[in-house]
Amino acid sequence: MALKYKDLLPIGSALIIAGTFFFLGLLAGNLPYDFKTLYTQASDADFDNSLKHYQTWAQIPTVALHLLHSFIGLGFIGILIKLYKPSEDAKYFEYGSLLFYVIAFCIYLTNLRTGAESAVIGEWGEVDYKTGINVIAASEAMIAFLLLGVLLLQGGLYYGEWEFQQRLEAFNKEIAEEEATKSATESVSITSDESDEATETSEKQTKKTRQPKSEAPQRTPRKTRSSANKKK
């Protein structure tokens, strides 16, 4: 049995959700450091811990980095699958998901990767390292909001398709019930017509059987030759 494009749509949705959650998991690993430096009155020790964390994060092996990017790429593969032949009702959801995902990945490359390399090199441009670390933390918050937008769009699309299927099934069920009722009514009318015809036929047969028999005509006796001779 050949695989149709419609069968690939659930796979595309699963890849989008998998890539998005992996991306969010990557950000969640940095949250304990970002929360202290960005949302609380952080001390110098908190900034130093965050700086060491991003220095370690920037020096991960190349294989691990490519593996990380490949998991993020699953989201792009899923979006491209669903954008190959988008329906008129769902295409804006898919284009919105692509836009949010691309922006999130661009922020990751420009702010997170560049910021982590700056933590290793020690060059932060016109700002100090504390401001640079907070820029990384704020960028991760922006990425998280964009990825949540992707999940909301995919969830809204799934709910819309599910509700449409529910309404379609209810409509088809109603049509089937109406057709069944109509066919039952027609069969009852046909049966009643047949019974009426059978009743009329039986009544006709009954009338024929009850009709009195006509009297047989009296036979006149034939004269024999002997009686004729006697008269002569």
UniProtKB/TrEMBL annotation:
Asked if S-adenosyl-L-methionine is a keyword of the record, the answer is no
Enumerate the transmembrane spans. Answer: 7-28, 57-80, 92-111, 131-153
The keyword Transmembrane appears for this protein? yes
| GO terms for cellular component | endoplasmic reticulum membrane
Q: Where is the composition biased (Basic residues)?
A: 220-232
**What GO molecular function annotations does the UniProt record carry, in alphabetical order?**
unfolded protein binding
Q: Which keywords annotate this record?
A: Membrane, Transmembrane, Transmembrane helix
**Biological process (GO), any one:** endoplasmic reticulum to Golgi vesicle-mediated transport
Q: Which Pfam families match?
A: SHR3_chaperone (PF08229)
| Chain residue ranges for the region called Disordered | 178-232
Biased composition of type Low complexity is found at: 182-192
Question: What PANTHER family is this protein classified in?
Answer: SECRETORY COMPONENT PROTEIN SHR3 (PTHR28228)
**Per its record, how is this protein called by name?**
Shr3 amino acid permease chaperone
* Organism of origin: Wickerhamomyces mucosus
